[in-house]
Design goal:
Layout: H1 5-13, E1 20-23, E2 25-26, E3 35-36, H2 45-54, E4 60-63, H3 73-95
Length: about 100
């Protein structure tokens, strides 16, 4: 889109136009990428979560496309949800709740 993800969050967040976020990380930008764990991609997900909190975005945040771990996809989902909760807690502490 020609904008950074943070600039995009600020643009649409200030207009209350963010309703649903598919929260995932990838190994490189479009058009060719592979989905990774949230802590293993090319972009810092804590920056995204912090920007969402700074703009006071009230949206649905969906854990989206995580790799399988030992034990199958449920293990990967549990890791992803725990990581998201930790990012949100950190952002709340930094920005304020």
């Amino acid at each position: 889109m020609g904008e950074s993800i943070i600039d995009t969050i600020r643009l649409f967040g200030r207009r209350n136009k963010i309703f649903k976020v598919h929260f995932r990380n990838v190994n490189r930008p479009l058009p060719h990428f592979v989905e990774t764990f949230l802590d293993d991609g090319y972009y810092g997900m804590s920056k995204i979560m912090k920007a969402l909190r700074e703009e006071d975005v009230d949206c649905i945040l969906i854990a989206d496309h995580w790799p399988d771990m030992v034990g199958g996809s449920r293990t990967g989902f549990a890791f992803t949800m725990g990581y998201i909760k930790a990012l949100l807690e950190r952002a709340n502490e930094e920005v304020g709740t």
